[in-house]
Amino acid sequence: MKRNTILYILLVFLLVVNGFFLFNYIGKENGNRLKEPRRNKDFIKKELGFNASQLEQFKDKSKGHENTMMRLSDDIRMLKDQLFDKIADASVEEITIDSLSSLICEKETEKEKEIFYHFKMIQDIFDNTQKEKFKSILKDALRRGDKGNRPRPPNRSERYRPPPKHN
Q: Helix, strand or coil for residue 54?
């Protein structure tokens, strides 16, 4: 009887630990997605030194922007999944690939426009000093972001073959 009691206590302990782990693991994954835009907002508020009135205007003008950005990102991810699911197909029609690529481009364009108009809209609440600082923050962010998106030049020691040309 004593041996069974110890096993039951150990079983309950393992269930609690596993439940705690799963809760934290799943919660952090979903939470990070929601915390990222929040962190960006906090950075902008802190760096530009908003007063109470500006902070309220910023909150009002930012409503819906995060949801729009998440929706567009989800749409792009879904379209890319559809596109790259075609890799396994024995034959792929080029019109299908072109169509999916065009849809991805449209969503990316929509996303870039959303970002631009959001920044343009919130810039209206800044004073002249804040506008200059905001402008330099944006330029710095764009320069930093471009570095990660550039294709790497081929290394001479590697055998480099350009992608095939389609007629």
A: helix
Task: Return the half-sphere exposure (C-beta side, CA atoms, 13 A cut-off) of residue 92.
Answer: 14
Can you tell me the distance from the alpha carbon of 33 to that of 148, in angstroms, rounded to the nearest whole number?
21
Evaluate if pTM is beyond 0.70: no
Burial class for 123, CB neighbours closer than 10 Å (0-12, 13-18, 19+): middle
Structure confidence at residue 160 as a pLDDT band (50, 70, 90): low
Residues ≥6 apart with Cβ < 8 Å to 13: none
The C-alpha torsion from 118 through 148 and 163 to 105, rounded to 10°, is -10
Nearest 5 degrees, angle CA 84-CA 88-CA 90? 125
